[in-house]
Here is the input.
Amino acid sequence: MRLMKYLVVTLIILLPGPNACYHQNTSRAVIKVDCTKSTILKNIPGSPNITTVTSHCKDYQFDPDSLKMALDIFVQEYADQFVTSKIAVREMLKNLKIEVSAIPRTVHAAYGINGKYLKGNIPVAGLALSKNHIWVEVKTSQIWSSALVHELIHIIIWRKNIVHGDPDHEGKEFSGWTKEHTKLIERINKILLDTET
Here is the structure.
């Protein structure tokens, strides 16, 4: 019975909401790149000077057009959630470098979404490395399954707070992250799931 409840809750979380109005279907939002054949640093078209790059010469990264669509969705949803302008949200993402790789990373310490401090070799799906640089692991051929949206939230908080991106999320040690941010991530990822299938 517990397993059935878990599966139902999981399905509800993963299914796109009825208000998802973005309908650009992309079959493959992740592309393989090779620095010996083409540049691995790509500008995202129509973005405020956002670039994407791979961690390694032969690696995977988000397709620039698919990443632009994901960023546009993020900007719209963030602006709606926190009652601000899309221009202000775009400005908070200006000059961001999005590093992508299929090769996982670990850190020696991290915080869970609830603020719990974790020690050891902690596997991470994304990192806000500075207020201008995030790293995101490619897990599937679609952006929604990555930590992109989560890391974009850290960047906006970091640029507002100046000194940190609220590493403990909903914890009490750092400020900035709220339950609304966590809900926003879930909502945007549902919309991305809808557009990428």
Remarks:
- The longest strand covers residues 117-124.
- Residues 7 and 173 are 33 Å apart (CA to CA).
- The chain is about 35% helix and 25% strand.
